[in-house]
């Protein structure tokens, strides 16, 4: 049983109750089987009948084929009997030849006697037709086919006489020459008429005179066919003196007349003459020719779409006309290039070269949807009016000129930028910058805010991008992706050179600022922790304390923070514009083979710009920290503890002084920095500030004026945890308003690095509790926290020795390793304690 049948039975019998249906199902299956057998039997009988019918027809065809073979044999037999049995067969054939010869002589006599009148008749027809077509482009050439017929008869007769005379005496040849010589004048007249028709064919078709085109094609096609017959007969030696005496000379052609070649030659002459007139019109400024070739392009479109389809495809009229104009344009362009034109003229030539190439591709591919059309378009794409080799040289020469000009401009710009940044005579410029902020609402749901804030930028900060746009747009007009890519790549190199120049300027100006305003000199004298404040960069030996404000200003002029911020804003805005506007704009203007180079050129500027902005932010952070050093130097010292003695004192605590200084800087900074620069600077500042706070506290306890932490101290002004808590509360309360709701979470998480110190410094059983705090609190908050953080706080405890500390630190290192192996890094990493160290 088949699978289909089993499947059907399984579908019908699913439950026990279905078993009662077995009898009825059996009857149903029997009926279906009977029906199927009946249909199968009928189909089988039909197929058998068809096979028998075909066999019968095959037998009938075989019989008829044998009958045909028999009849052919009879015909062959009758022919043999007739030709062999007739004794007079050769006589009959010779009599027939003689009769044909006499008839030929009679016709020759008649045509020779009337040849002069016949040629005059043809000449009159030609003159009348020429006058009509030369005066009216819409004239449908009413008599051209009639003229061509009569002329062909006359020329066939003339050819026949000339070939026949080759076997005659010199006297007879002279007579024949006198008869045929007038034919040359008639032929010349007809060629002039045909030339006028050829040069008028395009304008006639534009005027709707399709009859002229069709009649011209008919004549040329007839001439081509007859020339082909003539060539074949000559190669097969089918023309000899014997056959000439009896053939119909009205159909005789002694040699090729080559009217197809005549057509192409006259058409080419006409096209060249038209182009030459255009050149003559702009003889005083030949570069204007490239701006006025619309007529040629319109002509090529008309030929491609209207004229060429009227002609046989094998004639390639379209390609022929395109090639004629291309050759004229190429020769004209080469003549101009030989005169060594300026770069502007070369660019105009390149621009039209690209335009011409795109025009031809669009012309061919616009109406050719097949593969052949695509091949034609690809072939035209490779054609340049100046030639591929010379085009490369011209492109290289033009790029060299652009590169030299751009490098000169960039050098002058860098000098001016350095002067403006160093002198800082006026505040930076203000620019309205549209920014998008991501924040959270009161329900901690993400929201997006769009603001137009006024930010500081450097004077003429748009100049580099304006220069790029100016040069790139000119390159785009040239139509050559290689020029655009070369311009963008060179601009990118100049842009990076300016960034490097700014990095050097920033470094020099920051060193000048620190040489005058650094608090390290004072702190080295006042603090025992001298190692904290020694900068690696060499400092000039200046007597700052005895210098006047004017003298100090001459070393480092005011406004460094504002100009640093303007520099950071400038490169942030320009980077955004390059990536969001310039990159997609110019990528879309070149072939895909150039797009990766353009993208790489713009991407090459991103990393240096980011590095410059990082340097700017680092300098701003260091300047703020520099002002905080006097207050931070009190961390974990006796006076720091005693700040909690009295809450009624008018004197600010260390943490309050710090908050006041930070707020003053950041409130002003927020008024002229972009949101990204501001938030990034504040976040990195928090990391530096908090790690510096902890580091200075450790140094003060271990090496300076601070005292060891007594975990058992309970008095408020002696409790380390109470003092830590006081600072954390002041820092968060004083700085929270400077953050968005979303960013305030970073402030809170960063301050936990200080908050943990209260528990780490005062907990009982530190050998057991600190590893737990490290594992459960510190590492989850500061994933990459250095174990030096633990070593430092333990070194500050009065109740721990070096052996305990080393043991505890090793344990913490193992915990950190296991934690990293089992727990992936969080999405947002707090970098406060990354690479933390102390001396």
Write the SSE topology.
Elements (H helix, E strand, L loop, with lengths): L2 H10 L9 H64 L3 H47 L8 H22 L4 H11 L1 H25 L3 H26 L5 H4 L14 H23 L6 H4 L2 H14 L9 H21 L5 H25 L3 H11 L6 H36 L5 E12 L5 E12 L5 H16 L2 H37 L2 H7 L22 H7 L4 H28 L4 H41 L5 H5 L11 H19 L2 H28 L17 H16 L8 H19 L3 H16 L6 H9 L5 H21 L17
Antiparallel strand pairs: 1-2
Helix pairs in contact: 3-4, 3-6, 4-5, 4-6, 6-7, 6-9, 9-12, 11-12, 11-13, 13-14, 13-15, 15-17, 16-17, 16-20, 17-21, 20-21, 21-23, 21-24, 23-25, 24-26, 24-28, 25-26, 26-27, 27-29, 28-29
InterPro entries: EXOC3/Sec6, EXOC3/Sec6_C
Family: Belongs to the SEC6 family.
Protein name: Piso0_001092 protein
Keywords:
single chain, 839 residues, mainly alpha, 5 domains, two-stranded antiparallel sheet, 29 helices, 2 strands, 73% helix, 3% strand, EXOC3/Sec6_C, Piso0_001092 protein, EXOC3/Sec6
Would you write up a description of this structure?
Helix content is 73%, strand content 3%. The protein is an all-alpha fold and 839 residues long. The protein folds into five domains: 3-84; 101-257; 263-386, no CATH class; 394-621, Tetracycline Repressor, domain 2 (Orthogonal Bundle), CATH 1.10.357; 634-839, Tetracycline Repressor, domain 2 (Orthogonal Bundle). Strands 1-2 form a two-stranded antiparallel ribbon. A hairpin with a 5-residue loop joins β1 and β2. This is Piso0_001092 protein. Keywords: Exocytosis, Transport. InterPro entries: EXOC3/Sec6 (IPR010326), EXOC3/Sec6_C (IPR042532). It comes from Pichia sorbitophila (strain ATCC MYA-4447 / BCRC 22081 / CBS 7064 / NBRC 10061 / NRRL Y-12695) (Hybrid yeast).
């Amino acid at each position: 049983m088949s699978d289909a049948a089993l499947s059907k039975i399984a579908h019908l019998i699913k439950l026990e109750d279905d078993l009662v249906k077995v009898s009825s199902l059996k009857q149903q299956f029997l009926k279906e089987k009977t029906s199927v057998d009946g249909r199968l039997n009928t189909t089988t009988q039909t197929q058998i009948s068809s096979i028998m019918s075909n066999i019968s027809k095959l037998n009938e065809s075989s019989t008829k084929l044998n009958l045909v073979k028999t009849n052919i044999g009879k015909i062959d037999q009758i022919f043999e009997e007739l030709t062999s049995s007739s004794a007079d067969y050769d006589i009959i054939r010779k009599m027939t030849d003689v009769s044909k010869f006499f008839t030929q002589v009679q016709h020759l006599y008649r045509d020779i006697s009337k040849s002069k009148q016949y040629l005059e008749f043809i000449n009159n027809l030609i003159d009348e037709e020429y006058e009509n077509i030369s005066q009216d482009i819409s004239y449908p050439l009413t008599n051209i086919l009639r003229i061509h017929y009569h002329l062909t008869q006359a020329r066939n007769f003339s050819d026949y006489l000339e070939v026949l005379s080759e076997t005659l005496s010199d006297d007879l040849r002279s007579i024949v020459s006198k008869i045929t010589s007038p034919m040359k004048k008639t032929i010349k007249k007809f060629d002039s008429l045909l030339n006028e028709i050829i040069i008028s064919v395009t304008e006639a078709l534009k005027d709707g005179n399709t009859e002229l085109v069709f009649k011209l094609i008919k004549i040329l096609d007839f001439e081509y066919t007859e020339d082909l017959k003539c060539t074949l007969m000559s190669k097969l030696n089918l023309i000899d003196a014997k056959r000439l005496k009896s053939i119909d000379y009205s159909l005789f052609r002694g040699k090729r007349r080559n009217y197809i070649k005549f057509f192409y030659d006259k058409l080419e002459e006409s096209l060249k003459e038209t182009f030459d007139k255009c050149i003559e019109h702009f003889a005083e400024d030949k570069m204007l020719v490239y701006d006025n070739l619309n007529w040629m392009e319109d002509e090529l479109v008309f030929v491609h779409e209207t004229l060429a389809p009227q002609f046989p495809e094998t004639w390639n009229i379209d390609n022929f006309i395109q090639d004629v104009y291309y050759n004229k344009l190429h020769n004209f362009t080469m003549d101009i290039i030989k005169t060594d034109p300026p770069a502007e003229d070369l660019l105009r030539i390149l621009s039209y070269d690209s335009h011409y190439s795109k025009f031809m591709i669009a012309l061919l591919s616009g109406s050719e949807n097949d593969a052949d059309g695509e091949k034609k378009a690809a072939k035209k794409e490779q054609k340049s009016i100046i030639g591929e080799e010379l085009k490369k040289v011209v492109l290289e020469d033009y790029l060299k000129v652009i590169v030299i000009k751009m490098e000169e401009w960039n050098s002058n710009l860098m000098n001016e930028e350095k002067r403006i940044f160093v002198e800082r005579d006026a505040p930076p410029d203000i620019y309205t910058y549209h920014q998008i902020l991501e924040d959270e609402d009161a329900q901690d749901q993400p929201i997006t805010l769009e603001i137009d804030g006024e930010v500081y930028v450097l004077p003429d900060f748009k100049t580099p991008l304006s220069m790029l746009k100016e040069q790139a747009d000119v390159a785009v007009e040239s139509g050559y992706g290689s020029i655009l890519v070369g311009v963008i790549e060179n601009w990118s190199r100049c842009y990076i050179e300016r960034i490097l120049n700014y990095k050097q300027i920033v470094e020099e100006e920051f060193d000048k600022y620190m040489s005058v305003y650094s608090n390290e000199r004072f702190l080295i004298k006042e603090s025992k922790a001298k190692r904290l404040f020694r900068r690696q960069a060499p400092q000039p030996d200046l007597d700052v304390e005895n210098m006047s404000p004017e003298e100090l200003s001459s070393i480092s002029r005011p406004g460094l923070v504002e100009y640093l911020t303007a520099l950071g804003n400038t490169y942030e805005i320009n980077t955004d514009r390059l990536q969001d506007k310039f990159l997609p704009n110019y990528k879309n203007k070149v072939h895909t083979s150039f797009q990766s180079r353009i993208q790489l050129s713009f991407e090459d500027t991103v990393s240096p710009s980011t590095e410059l902005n990082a340097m700017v932010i680092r300098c701003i952070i260091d300047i703020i920290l520099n002002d905080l050093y006097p207050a931070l130097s009190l961390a974990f010292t006796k006076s720091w503890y005693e700040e909690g003695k009295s809450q009624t004192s008018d004197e600010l605590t260390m943490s309050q002084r710090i908050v006041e200084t930070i707020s003053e800087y950041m409130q002003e900074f927020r008024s002229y920095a972009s949101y990204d620069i501001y938030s990034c600077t504040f976040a990195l500042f928090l990391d530096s500030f908090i790690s510096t706070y902890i580091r200075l506290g450790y140094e003060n306890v271990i090496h300076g004026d601070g005292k060891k932490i007594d975990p058992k101290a309970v008095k408020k002004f002696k409790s380390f945890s109470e003092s830590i808590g006081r600072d954390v509360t002041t820092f968060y309360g004083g700085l929270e308003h400077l953050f968005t709701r979303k960013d305030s979470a970073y402030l809170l998480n960063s301050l936990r690095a200080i908050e943990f110190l209260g528990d780490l410094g005062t907990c009982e059983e530190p050998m057991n509790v600190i590893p737990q705090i490290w594992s459960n609190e510190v590492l989850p908050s500061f994933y990459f926290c250095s174990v030096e953080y633990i070593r430092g706080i333990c070194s500050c405890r009065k109740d721990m020795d070096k052996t305990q500390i080393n043991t505890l630190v090793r344990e913490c290192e193992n915990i950190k390793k296991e934690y990293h192996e089992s727990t992936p890094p969080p999405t947002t990493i707090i970098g406060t304690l990354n690479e933390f160290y102390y001396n």
